[in-house]
């Protein structure tokens, strides 16, 4: 059950945070939108979150998780949260980049270490993110309560991608973010912005030759069926944020707020395990798929370094052209990352 | 009256110009992007954004033009079967209520425009303020509302039934040739 | 809430309001009454979101290409070409009509364009050949519906938009069902011509046939470019639509010189008018979908209609019924925009292939649009041919029987829609 592994901190009643604390909670329903569908990490996160909150509040707090779909684009969902139409959302900073410019920091390649575990540790502890970046978001009525990784992003392709020259004239599907486009131009690729709903067919027909995503998403969307190679490049992490509407959150009674904070914290370990399990499961599946064989290659440290060298100047572009605080958050984050990786 | 008629004519020409050239702009953007990719190997990153801009303008700025020409899609089966008096009453009530809805939508969408403006959202490729696109929604809806008021007025003033100020009901007027169907 | 929403929409619809009004007012009232905390301003944002999809840009482009060709000479060249080969057979003119509608359907995205471009010149030829007017019109209206199945298809683009499926795959999947409908109509035409004893036309000499083929060669390049280009991965559906425009332009303006360059803005104006009328509905449809998703209405409706854990066949039959009935009353685009978000999730959960579902839906939409009492194609034909409603529908029953039979076939044999996966490498 949800209460079993809680530390119980913040609850004056002791380890069993159940009935007494929740006795003065009003019955209420919150809406929790995600950018993914049932079975995928974000949605499962919201469903688990809902389950735990229900148990902790003795059924007083009902959270309805929403799959991606009818509520418009990812950007629309962001605005829905900002306007208080929904209380909670999982969002990718990539979809707020047109507003909170600093959020594009997560598009930079080879910023986080190649270990997903270390990356998660940084996301949990970084002051640059959990304080400075959160403040940027709060200007827009969005409060990120936590940052977590859905796994490292990998490349799939029709021809091997092991060194930067493999990207020469390579048609790479990207999202429309200028920083992502810059990142692939830095390798000499031809970034082709495209909606993911057209991506399967485009890969199949060769309109684009490659794409990037966490492994579970590659498998769930069957991109491996139409690609011959997968490069474990760990060039980036797909980072998501658990967010709440700022005014709504600040107006919550203390006991309810405590329940939320506590659950958010527990969920960090849960989602780390969830994405790990999903990514590992799909990696095995993709490797063992004999009908659609995919050659999986993991980059060596030297190979990664060759890409990283080309990716570094994009950080200057971020500092000069994207950041509104001259890259102060990036510089602080880089120091924090150095500290963690030096351990 | 002369001035009003001149304004009307100007608005008509302007609407025709916007509709026609936004469609051509989309064609140029999409074709240009394909050709550029085929010839030089690189896409026009601005192509999608400009096309979207054009389609929003064409859609919303086209509302009043389509209303004038009586070309908004509707389910006219019962209307067509109804006797003259009922049709006349509906021909006044429908545009009046439609105009009201358009004005309500124009109001809400201008609130949306204000919000976009306050947040300072920019488009992802050209980094232009998103409000440049959004602003055409309330303008189009408002113009549409005005045109529906005119559709109402022409039905009050004239004996014949009009589906739009430029289109009489074809139940009484067989001149269908100038309607192009697509 | 569902009852309130539905009654508002049905009343406004039947009163002959522009269709965007029921689509907007229904959800707006739902917001006011049931979700006072939700700012209607957010619904306005959906008006924009609804039409900003890149996939959707294929619609105005295919319409523009069709408009250029309807203004020019393309449809007559196709008619002459097909007629030269099959005109002399039993039912030859009828087969010519069906074949040309299929071919023109392969060029244009819409049924109405096909009715105008092929129907007008072909009706005269059919009458001269001894066909009854009502038979001629029924044939034209129903054959034009094949246009919705043969790529490019605006109906399929709309389905792809709402369901996030691939336009390219849907296009491939529609071809075989389209050809089956064409074959059924051809067989019927032969039988009909025998029964009515329609005189045979003279056989066209081979020399003339070669000439006609030569003249039709360029228009025949269209389907090759659209389908081939998408399949070969040279471009996306939207880009294929752009290339269609370029091709139509080169054909009619530069090669045939049937349209002057200065006429192009006027052609684009007609495209813009239709685009606006359609896209307003797409915008309103998105606002509608947004509100019902928020209120979880699709779940309520599908649970009520389908119960828990419905079988694939049952889901497909209900989809068939709802779309068919919907299209008898409402514009096909609106039906797709409104009903797809309701049924799509259940259907996919039941294990139905999204592409197969898309073909079924497109087929029902085509069928419903040509079916009395209120199919939109009937009104189009009534306006284009200046014939009364009854004259238009008099000879439709055999076609409707054929189409319903094929619909049942498609439901029970998904491989017909999905055959492209085996056939194409
Ligand atoms: Na593969
Ligand atoms: Na077609």
UniProtKB/TrEMBL annotation, chain B:
This protein's UniProt keywords: Cell inner membrane, Cell membrane, Membrane, Transmembrane, Transmembrane helix, Transport
Keyword Transcription: no
Topology within the bilayer: Multi-pass membrane protein
GO cellular component: plasma membrane
GO molecular function: transmembrane transporter activity
The protein's name: TRAP transporter small permease
Taxonomic superkingdom: Bacteria
GO biological process, alphabetically ordered: C4-dicarboxylate transport
Domain Tripartite ATP-independent periplasmic transporters DctQ component positions: 26-156
Locations listed in the record: Cell inner membrane
Pfam families: DctQ (PF04290)
Organism: Radiobacillus deserti
Similarity annotation: Belongs to the TRAP transporter small permease family.
Transmembrane segments: 21-44, 50-68, 89-110, 130-149
Keyword presence, Transmembrane: yes
TrEMBL record, chain C:
Domain of life of the source: Bacteria
Transmembrane annotation, as ranges: 6-34, 54-72, 139-162, 174-193, 214-234, 240-259, 271-294, 314-339, 346-367, 399-420
Cross-referenced Pfam families: DctM (PF06808)
A GO cellular-component term linked to this record: plasma membrane
Domain TRAP C4-dicarboxylate transport system permease DctM subunit: 8-416
Record's subcellular location: Cell inner membrane
One example GO MF annotation: transmembrane transporter activity
Keyword Transferase tagged: no
Membrane topology note: Multi-pass membrane protein
Major localization listed first in the record, in broad terms: membrane
Alphabetized UniProt keyword annotations: Cell inner membrane, Cell membrane, Membrane, Transmembrane, Transmembrane helix
Protein name: TRAP transporter large permease
Source species: Radiobacillus deserti
């Amino acid at each position: 059950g949800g209460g079993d592994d809680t530390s119980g901190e913040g609850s004056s009643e002791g380890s069993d945070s159940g009935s007494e604390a929740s006795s003065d909670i009003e019955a209420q329903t919150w809406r929790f939108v995600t950018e993914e569908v049932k079975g995928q990490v974000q949605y499962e996160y919201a469903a688990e979150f809902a389950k735990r909150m229900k148990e902790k509040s003795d059924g007083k707090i009902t959270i309805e998780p929403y799959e991606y779909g009818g509520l418009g684009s990812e950007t629309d969902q962001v605005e829905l949260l900002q306007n208080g139409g929904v209380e909670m959302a999982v969002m990718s900073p990539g979809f707020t980049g047109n507003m909170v410019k600093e959020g594009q920091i997560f598009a930079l390649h080879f910023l986080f270490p190649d270990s997903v575990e270390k990356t998660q540790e940084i996301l949990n502890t970084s002051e640059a993110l959990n304080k400075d970046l959160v403040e940027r978001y709060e200007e827009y009525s969005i409060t990120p309560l936590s940052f977590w990784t859905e796994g490292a992003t990998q490349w799939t392709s029709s021809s091997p991608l092991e060194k930067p020259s493999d990207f020469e004239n390579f048609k790479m599907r990207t999202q429309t973010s200028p920083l992502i486009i810059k990142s692939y131009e830095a390798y000499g690729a031809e970034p082709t912005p495209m909606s993911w709903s057209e991506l399967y067919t485009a890969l199949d027909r060769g309109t684009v030759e490659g794409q990037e995503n966490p492994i579970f998403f590659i498998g769930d969307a069957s991109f491996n069926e139409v690609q011959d190679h997968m490069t474990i490049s760990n060039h980036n992490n797909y980072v998501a944020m658990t967010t709440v509407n700022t005014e709504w959150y600040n107006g919550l009674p203390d006991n309810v707020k405590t329940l939320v904070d506590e659950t958010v914290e527990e969920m960090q370990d849960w989602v780390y395990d969830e994405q790990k399990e999903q990514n590992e499961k799909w990696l095995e599946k993709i490797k063992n798929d004999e009908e659609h064989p995919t050659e999986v290659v993991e980059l060596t440290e030297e190979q990664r370094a060759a890409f990283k060298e080309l990716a570094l100047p994009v950080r200057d572009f971020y500092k000069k052209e994207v950041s509104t605080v001259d890259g102060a958050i990036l510089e602080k984050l880089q120091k924090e990352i150095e500290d963690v990786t030096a351990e | 009256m002369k001035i009003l008629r001149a304004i009307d004519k100007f608005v008509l020409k302007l609407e025709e110009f916007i509709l026609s050239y936004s469609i051509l702009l989309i064609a140029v953007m999409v074709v240009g992007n394909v050709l550029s990719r085929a010839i030089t190997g690189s896409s026009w990153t601005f192509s999608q954004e400009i096309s979207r801009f054009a389609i929003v303008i064409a859609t919303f700025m086209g509302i009043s033009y389509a209303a004038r020409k009586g070309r908004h899609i509707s389910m006219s089966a019962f209307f067509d079967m109804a006797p003259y008096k009922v049709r006349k009453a509906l021909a006044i009530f429908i545009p009046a209520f439609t105009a009201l809805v358009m004005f309500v939508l124009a109001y809400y969408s201008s609130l949306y425009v204000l919000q976009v403006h306050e947040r300072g959202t920019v488009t992802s490729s050209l980094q232009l303020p998103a409000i440049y696109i959004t602003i055409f929604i309330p303008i189009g809806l408002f113009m549409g509302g005005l045109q529906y008021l005119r559709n109402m007025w022409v039905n009050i003033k004239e004996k014949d039934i009009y589906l739009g100020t430029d289109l009489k009901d074809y139940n009484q007027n067989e001149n269908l040739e100038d309607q192009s169907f697509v | 809430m569902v009852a309130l929403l539905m009654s508002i929409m049905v009343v406004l619809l039947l009163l002959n309001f522009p269709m965007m009004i029921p689509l907007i007012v229904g959800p707006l009232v739902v917001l006011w009454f049931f979700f006072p905390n939700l700012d209607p301003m957010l619904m306005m944002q959906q008006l924009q979101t609804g039409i900003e999809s890149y996939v959707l840009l294929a619609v105005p482009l295919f319409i523009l290409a069709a408009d250029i060709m309807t203004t020019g000479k393309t449809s007559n060249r196709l008619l002459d070409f097909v007629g030269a080969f099959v005109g002399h057979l039993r039912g030859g003119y009828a087969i010519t009509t069906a074949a040309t509608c299929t071919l023109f359907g392969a060029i244009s995205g819409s049924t109405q364009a096909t009715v105008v471009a092929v129907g007008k010149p072909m009706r005269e030829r059919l009458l001269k050949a001894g066909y009854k007017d009502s038979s001629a019109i029924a044939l034209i209206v129903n054959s034009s519906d094949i246009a919705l199945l043969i790529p490019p298809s605006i109906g399929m683009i709309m389905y792809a938009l709402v369901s996030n499926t691939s336009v390219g795959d849907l296009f491939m999947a529609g071809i075989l069902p389209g050809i089956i409908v064409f074959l059924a109509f051809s067989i019927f035409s032969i039988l009909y011509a025998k029964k009515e004893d329609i005189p045979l036309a003279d056989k066209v000499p081979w020399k003339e046939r070669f000439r006609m083929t030569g003249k039709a060669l360029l228009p025949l390049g269209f389907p090759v470019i659209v389908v081939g280009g998408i399949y070969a991965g040279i471009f996306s559906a939207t880009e294929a639509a752009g290339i269609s425009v370029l091709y139509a332009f080169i054909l009619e303006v530069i090669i045939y010189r049937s349209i002057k360059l200065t006429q192009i803005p006027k052609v684009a104006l007609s495209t813009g008018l239709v685009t606006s009328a359609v896209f307003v509905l797409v915008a309103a449809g998105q606002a509608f979908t947004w509100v019902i998703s928020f209120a979880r209405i699709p779940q309520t409706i599908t649970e009520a209609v389908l119960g828990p854990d419905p079988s694939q066949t049952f889901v497909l039959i209900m989809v068939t019924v709802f779309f068919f009935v919907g299209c008898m009353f409402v514009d096909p685009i609106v039906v797709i925009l409104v009903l797809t978000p309701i049924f799509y999730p259940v259907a996919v959960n039941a294990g139905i292939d999204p592409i197969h579902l898309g073909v079924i839906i497109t087929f029902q939409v085509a069928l419903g649009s040509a079916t009395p009492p209120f199919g939109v194609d009937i009104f189009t034909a009534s306006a284009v041919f200046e014939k009364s409603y009854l004259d238009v529908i008099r000879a439709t029953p055999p076609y409707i029987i054929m189409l319903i039979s094929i619909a049942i076939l498609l439901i029970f044999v998904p491989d017909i829609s999905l055959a492209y996966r085996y056939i194409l490498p």
